[in-house]
């Protein structure tokens, strides 16, 4: 995993050792002679949460090195440090950082002369006062990041100072903060002999899934219980300085640019060879239902066809990699790791949507491919989507993500959650059937049957030849409910609201009584319609055999629910056709 992360950094030329991307909110604009002109806001100007412009290769000192002696960053730092702006700017600590910032500019002036002019600007108290006044008028915050722009050019974007910075950074950082001196060990990331880095750089972007705002470490051994064989700190998992900063750069980039939040975790993924966003099968799992007209599984089928016909050799030899991450106590927790051929991934996505396919509640067509988060939310209680997302157990979501990506069996816990939610909603006549929930229950049985080596008998719509009596008990319940409505109209709490829970658990005890009550409803209908309903009841009861089962297990209760839904939709379609 570490090797793949490091390779991504090299292949995509991300900022690695000594560099990192930074958001910069403000720029000090100067003319070619270094005279101050104005302060301008960068990024999405006018937005309340504007973080500024991203500069991909900003210099970076290690946090521990800065804490050791009042050091500042180079070319980019806070307005407080650069311009002595704010209430705390006159403290000895900030003044020392300001002086250090200027000294770095003068030192770098040897390779980039314009930086000498900027250092002189910061030494000029008159110009510095104008700069602070402009920052105040712009309502800039002292902790906002700021850089320079000279004659329309940002020095931070120049590569002239990069070699100087690499040397300067090495001399500024105490050796003990970089490597464990005297120890040659095999690097976990490269397989080469190296002096292991003592403290690894922190991974950012996991604050919304349990991480710290300042970042979390992926590899760290700060407690004796984490160590073994007498090794100290990160020598327990030796990684070179170059490899450590390379994997950090990849993770920061993927979390910021290509990650999805799933309950209490974030999923990041990438490919061995570049894949266009519109051809990313994992992204299709996250397509909202409103965008489902694009039909994710159809796109996956077209892509697989292109691979098999030789039209897409670039995808045939490609591989995918996916990490599920969260934060805990300042550490990056790797919840799951998946990898495999691109062709296999596309096939698994097709199977996921195929297995979830369910007849639309209006009949006549299949429901749209459900968004992954819609499937998850269909298993929990809550009035709003935000409440449902909050109630989702992170471990459950992580497991279901793996189920979707790797085509694993759906756990029985998912079936139980979906069934409980279905029973709660069935008593409310104003709540329509949830397609994602019904599709999840159907997918459970499809995958169970596939595991046994047989052809799945569970279909998206009603299957009159289904072998399970529990399924036909649900169908019978739907026929009786439709019969009551045809005879009496809306009676408030009908047979479904009053008897569904009991009938799905003990059908033999309940259904017989409901069938006998249905005879009175038949007498209230026209002869033709009465005969039609009698025929429907007879067809279903023929599939039950001698009697309905006395009790049903969790799986059988789910079959009961699916049989009810399938028959309910089927009767609705037939009724509509007859009316036409």
Measured distance between first and last alpha carbons: 61 Å
Q: Strand fraction band?
A: 5-15%
The main pleated sheet reads as: 4 strands, mixed
Rg value: 32 Å
Morphology: elongated
- For the largest sheet, list the strands in their spatial order: 3-2-6-5
Poorly predicted ranges: 289-294
Compute the average pLDDT: 88
Task: Give the helix level as a range of percent.
Answer: 40-55%
Q: What's the quaternary structure here?
A: single chain
What's the total count of β strands?
12
Put simply, the count of helices is 22
Judged by helices, strands and strand pairing, the structural class is alpha+beta
Question: What features would you describe in this structure?
Answer:
- By secondary structure, the chain is an alpha+beta fold.
- Helix 16 (412-426) runs antiparallel to helix 17 and helix 18 (469-488) runs antiparallel to helix 21 (527-544).
- The protein has helices at residues 2-11, 63-69, 79-83, 92-108, 114-123, 125-137, 162-172, 241-257, 281-284, 296-308, 313-316, 342-356, 372-377, 385-391, 394-406, 412-426, 435-451, 469-488, 495-505, 507-522, 527-544, 554-579; strands at 19-24, 26-30, 36-41, 53-59, 77-78, 145-150, 185-186, 193-194, 259-262, 265-271, 319-328, 331-341.
- It is built from 22 helices and twelve strands.
- The strands form four sheets. A four-stranded mixed β-sheet has the order 3-2-6-5.
């Amino acid at each position: 995993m570490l090797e793949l992360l490091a390779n991504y950094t090299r292949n995509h030329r991300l900022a690695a050792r000594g560099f990192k991307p930074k958001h910069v909110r403000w720029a000090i604009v100067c003319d070619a002679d270094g005279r101050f002109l104005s302060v301008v806001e960068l990024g999405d100007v006018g937005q309340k949460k504007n973080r500024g412009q991203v500069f991909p290769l900003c210099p970076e000192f290690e946090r521990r090195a800065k804490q050791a002696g009042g050091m500042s960053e180079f070319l980019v730092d806070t307005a407080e440090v650069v311009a002595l702006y704010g209430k705390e700017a006159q403290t000895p600590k900030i003044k020392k950082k300001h002086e250090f910032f200027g000294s770095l500019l003068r030192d770098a002036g040897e390779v980039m002369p314009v930086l000498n002019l900027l250092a002189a600007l910061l030494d000029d108290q008159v110009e510095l006062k104008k700069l602070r006044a402009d920052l105040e008028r712009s309502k800039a915050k002292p902790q906002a990041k700021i850089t320079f722009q000279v004659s329309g050019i940002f020095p931070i974007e120049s590569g002239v100072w990069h070699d100087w910075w690499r040397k300067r950074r090495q001399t500024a950082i105490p050796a003990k903060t970089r490597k464990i001196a005297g120890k040659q060990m095999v690097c976990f990331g490269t397989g080469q002999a190296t002096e292991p880095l003592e403290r690894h750089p922190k991974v950012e972007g996991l604050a919304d899934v349990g991480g710290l705002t300042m970042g979390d470490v992926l590899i760290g051994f700060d407690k004796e219980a984490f160590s073994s064989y007498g090794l100290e700190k990160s020598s327990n998992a030796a990684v070179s300085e170059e490899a450590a900063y390379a994997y950090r750069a990849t993770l920061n980039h993927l979390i910021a640019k290509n990650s999805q939040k799933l309950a209490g975790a974030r999923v990041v993924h990438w490919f061995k060879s570049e894949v266009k966003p519109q051809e990313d099968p994992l992204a299709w799992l996250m397509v909202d239902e409103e965008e489902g007209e694009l039909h994710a599984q159809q796109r996956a089928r077209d892509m697989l066809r292109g691979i098999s016909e030789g039209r897409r050799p670039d995808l045939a030899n490609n591989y995918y990699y996916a990490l599920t991450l969260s934060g805990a106590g300042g550490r990056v927790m790797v919840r799951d790791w998946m990898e495999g051929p691109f062709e296999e991934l596309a096939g698994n996505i097709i199977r996921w949507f195929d297995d979830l396919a369910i007849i639309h509640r209006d009949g006549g067509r299949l429901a749209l491919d459900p968004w992954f988060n819609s499937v998850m939310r269909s298993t929990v209680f809550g009035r709003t989507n935000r409440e449902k997302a909050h109630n989702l157990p992170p471990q459950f979501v992580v497991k279901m993500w793996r189920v979707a990506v790797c085509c694993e069996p759906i756990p029985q816990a998912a079936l139980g959650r979906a069934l409980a939610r279905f029973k709660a909603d069935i008593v409310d006549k104003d709540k329509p059937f949830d397609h994602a929930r019904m599709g999840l229950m159907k997918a459970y049985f499809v995958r169970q049957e596939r595991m046994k080596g047989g052809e799945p008998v569970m279909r998206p719509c009603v299957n009159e030849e289904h072998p399970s009596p529990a399924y036909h008990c649900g169908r019978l319940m739907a026929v009786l409910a439709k019969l009551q409505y045809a005879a009496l109209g809306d009676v408030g709490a009908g047979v479904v609201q009053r008897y569904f829970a009991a009938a799905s658990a003990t059908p033999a005890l309940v259904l017989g009584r409901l069938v006998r009550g249905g005879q009175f409803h038949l007498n209230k209908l026209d002869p033709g319609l009465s005969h039609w309903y009698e025929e429907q009841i007879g067809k279903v009861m023929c599939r039950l055999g001698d009697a309905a089962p006395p009790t049903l297990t969790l799986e059988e209760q789910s079959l009961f629910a699916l049989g009810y839904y399938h028959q309910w939709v089927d009767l609705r379609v037939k009724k509509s056709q007859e009316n036409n």
